[in-house]
Amino acid sequence: MEGVQLSLISKERLEKMASMEKLRMILDSVKEGKIVVLESGLTPEEEAKLIEMTMLEIDHENFVGIEVESYPYKEGFFSKLFGKKKGRLTVIGPANRLKTLEKKEDLITALVKIGD
């Protein structure tokens, strides 16, 4: 059966992982052609580090990069006070298989290419 593998990762699992462990898991999954959906998203620092790591591992024949989209974070009192901002839901996939078509405050529409 042909298809795309999705990894839906819970907030609880992500909270148990160190930042670099989380980023390595995401990047390894995407390099295998999987689409990764994170329930709690990444911090801006983690997202920047993921992009940096991706740029170092680009191989134009096998891995062309990633596509990353997150719902915007809604600021509450505590996030303003403590400055911790994360995306609410993040979708990450190989750039040659995942294309964001539309992004709104509460909707991400993406096209996933099946096959090569």
Question: Can you describe what's shown?
Answer:
Helix content is about 35%, strand content about 25%. The protein is α+β, with helices and mostly antiparallel strands. The protein has one domain (about 5-110). The strands form two sheets. A four-stranded mixed sheet has the order 1-2-4-3. Strands 5-6 form a two-stranded antiparallel sheet. The chain is globular and about 45 Å long. The model has no long low-confidence stretch (mean pLDDT about 85).
Question: Topology of this protein?
Answer:
Blueprint: E1 6-9, H1 11-15, H2 19-31, E2 35-38, H3 44-57, E3 66-70, H4 77-82, E4 90-94, E5 98-104, E6 107-112
Parallel strand pairs: 1-2
Antiparallel strand pairs: 2-4, 3-4, 5-6
Helix pairs in contact: 2-3
Which word captures the global form? globular
Widest sheet: strand ordering:
1-2-4-3
- Beta fraction of the residues? 25-35%
**Poorly predicted tracts of residues:** none
Order of helices and strands: EHHEHEHEEE
Query: How many domains, as an integer?
Result: 1
| Average predicted local confidence, pLDDT | 83
Give the structural class: alpha+beta
Q: State the major sheet.
A: 4 strands, mixed
Short characterization:
The protein has 116 residues and is of the alpha+beta class. It is built from four helices and six strands. The mean pLDDT is 83.
Supply database-style keywords.
single chain, 116 residues, alpha+beta, two-stranded antiparallel sheet, 4 helices, 33% helix, globular
